[in-house]
Amino acid sequence: MGGAAVRVLIAPDSFKGTYRAAEVADAVADGAESAGLETIRMPVADGGDGTLEVLTGPLGLELTEIDSVNPWRAPCSGSFGLGEDGTAVVELATFSGITTPHKGFRDPMTADTYGTGLAMAEAVRRGATHVVVAAGGSATTDGGLGAIAAVVDAGGLGTATVTVLTDVTTRYTDAARVFGPQKGADETTVERLTRRLEDAAVTLPRDPREVDGTGAAGGFAGGMWAQFGADLRSGADFVLDALGFDAALAGADLVVVGEGRLDGQSRSGKIVSAILARVHAAPVVAVVGSVGDDLGDYRDRFAEIMVATDRDALRAAGARLARLG
């Protein structure tokens, strides 16, 4: 690298609860451009919150707001995206998420994915032939049974295909043990949820228990795989492919990744690890909100790690990239 021709590919995830991926990319790019660098802004996501937003432009999606229900069947509204090619993108977190608004008790035992199933069926009713569900951030451990019921109640999916985006390899009947506690399930509830998943596994058209990734979103992924033949894909890789990451990388001298917290979990299925797997020559800089104590030798994968907790710090981090040029 060298001189003013240095081109930086800026591909951050959101800083959850603080900044959207596009806001991070814009702030870092503004700082980099002020230092004379060329930038490619490419906000990314890993199949969880923010996936619909980053795919809307690249996939030519039109946002459609619908009425649905939240994880406890209370009325809620939300949007999905639908493209002219028949691709629909639904974020499970919008309708069945751990942050979906609810005025009552957020019971992990009764939470279900019925609202997401309603959104899937509505997308098909409006012309979708391929429904992509970003499965991150669920409040549910219903094995996808709620969504299946909603789709059946709405008349089915016809010939539409389903893809579920996930960033985990957890299997169906492990979902409660692995993810239940973060959804409010105590030890007894985890046991009850696990028994329910075991019962569901043997009643579905296909048994999802030995398939990696079927435990995503409390088994939603496995329910979709078993009932509708859903394709289970890495959310990070799906997004990078849709955004044309590899083509942009070919013209980049430096790559910037980012997320709210860089830690040991970043190694497994997250967008940062997916990007690192694709970058073979250009240095990679991480601009993050915080760094975990368990980062270990993963730190060696980066030319530099910069911590930035507000927009001014993000812009300053972008400007400091010139030192690497």
From TrEMBL:
Q: Which SUPFAM superfamilies does the record match to this protein?
A: Glycerate kinase I
Provide the species name: Rhodococcus indonesiensis
Q: Which GO terms describe its molecular function?
A: kinase activity
Cross-referenced Gene3D superfamilies, in alphabetical order? Glycerate kinase, domain 1 (3.40.50.10350), Glycerate kinase, domain 2 (3.90.1510.10)
Work out whether the entry's keyword set contains Transferase: yes
Q: Which residues form a coiled coil?
A: none
Which of UniProt's keywords are assigned here?
Kinase, Transferase
Q: What is this protein called?
A: Glycerate kinase
Give the range the annotation lists for the signal sequence. Answer: none
Keyword Transferase found: yes
Checking InterPro entries in the record gives: Glyc_kinase_flavodox-like_fold (IPR018193), Glycerate_kinase (IPR004381), Glycerate_kinase_RE-like (IPR018197), Glycerate_kinase_sf (IPR036129)
User: Which is a Pfam family this sequence falls into?
Assistant: Gly_kinase
Q: Which family does it belong to?
A: Belongs to the glycerate kinase type-1 family.
